[in-house]
């Protein structure tokens, strides 16, 4: 349910945009959602805010009065946000973040620990879960999502980067079991796969010419945890398809090598998402700024594989 403040912000945007359609585009909402929001506001206030015709939209006298006061109120909020951004007031309260288990532990937790250490009155709660949470219903300030995002007019998203899935094994395993020169050779090797909902998803690969291949692994080992798969590969037990951010260090130190290096997956986007609100708390803004500053270069460096 929209808060009163967010509804007022929508009202101000409609006035300044000139019509519902332009406001909907600016706010990334549907025209119907804008119309319903204004109707609820008018019902709550007991007045008509707009004079509507098929071609024009203009304020009533009551609408003009309400707009002037609403505009000043929002300006005050923006002024307060500016003061916070200048560091005159520290972030406070509880910041709740949802992140995928492994990616969250490796990449999100260190950044948020640093943020908490910089603000004495800020608490950070990190929930590691691979399911997609409902930010509003579950009470999260922001979440990290890997993969394509569904349309959701109630969330705002900022892309942090991409990752790829790579085939990998240890040099010891390949020396013992033989090289992999072609995709068909995978059928003669032990593969370790991640089951999902009772079946094995295909490994989606593309070559350097962007030609796509879907390979169903003939998995001897199936583990529903990426870290367990990585540990098993490092123990020389087979070939796996793992995210570049999880095996980047091992590829650089040589404990893992990329199998069929001319093949990788398509890019999977990584986003930070947060609820669409008329204002953003300082704690959320600082967390997003830190993610935007540090994650893109870290994810980009994962592509520099020797």
TrEMBL record:
UniProtKB keywords: DNA-binding, Transcription, Transcription regulation
GO biological process, one term: DNA-templated transcription
Domain HTH lysR-type, chain residue ranges per copy: 1-60
Xref: SUPFAM superfamilies: Periplasmic binding protein-like II, Winged helix' DNA-binding domain
GO molecular function: DNA-binding transcription factor activity; sequence-specific DNA binding
Keyword match Cytoplasm: no
Pfam families: HTH_1, LysR_substrate
Family annotation (PANTHER family): HTH-TYPE TRANSCRIPTIONAL REGULATOR, TRANSCRIPTIONAL REGULATOR-RELATED
Family that this chain belongs to: Belongs to the LysR transcriptional regulatory family.
Protein name: HTH lysR-type domain-containing protein
Naturally occurring in which organism (per UniProt): Acinetobacter dispersus
The organism's taxonomic lineage, starting at the top: Bacteria, Pseudomonadati, Pseudomonadota, Gammaproteobacteria, Moraxellales
């Amino acid at each position: 349910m929209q808060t009163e403040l967010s509804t007022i912000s929508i009202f101000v945007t409609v006035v300044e945009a000139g019509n519902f359609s332009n406001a909907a585009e600016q706010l990334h909402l549907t025209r119907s959602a804008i119309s319903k929001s204004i109707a609820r506001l008018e019902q709550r206030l007991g007045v008509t805010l707009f004079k509507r015709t098929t071609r024009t939209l203009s304020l009533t006298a009551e609408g003009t009065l309400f707009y002037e006061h609403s505009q000043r109120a929002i300006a005050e909020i923006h002024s307060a946000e500016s003061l916070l951004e200048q560091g005159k007031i520290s972030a406070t309260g509880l910041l709740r973040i949802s992140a995928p288990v492994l990616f969250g532990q490796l990449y999100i937790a260190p950044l948020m620990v640093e943020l908490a250490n910089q603000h004495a009155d800020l608490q950070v709660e990190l929930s590691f879960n691979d399911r997609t949470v409902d930010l509003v219903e579950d009470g999260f300030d922001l979440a990290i999502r890997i993969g394509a995002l569904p349309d959701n007019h109630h969330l705002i998203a900022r892309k942090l980067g991409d990752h790829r899935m790579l085939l990998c094994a240890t040099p010891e395993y390949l020396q013992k079991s033989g090289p992999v020169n072609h995709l068909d050779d995978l059928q003669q090797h032990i593969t370790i796969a991640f089951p999902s909902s009772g079946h094995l998803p295909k490994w989606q690969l593309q070559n350097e010419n962007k030609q796509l291949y879907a390979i169903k692994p003939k998995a001897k080992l199936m583990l529903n945890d990426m870290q367990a798969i990585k540990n098993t590969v490092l123990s020389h037990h087979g070939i796996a398809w793992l995210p570049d951010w999880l095996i980047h260090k091992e590829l650089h130190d040589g404990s893992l090598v990329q199998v069929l290096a001319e093949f990788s997956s398509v890019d999977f986007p990584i986003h930070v998402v947060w609820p669409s609100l008329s204002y953003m708390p300082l704690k959320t803004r600082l967390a997003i700024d830190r993610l935007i500053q540090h994650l893109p270069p870290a994810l980009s460096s994962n592509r520099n594989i020797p």
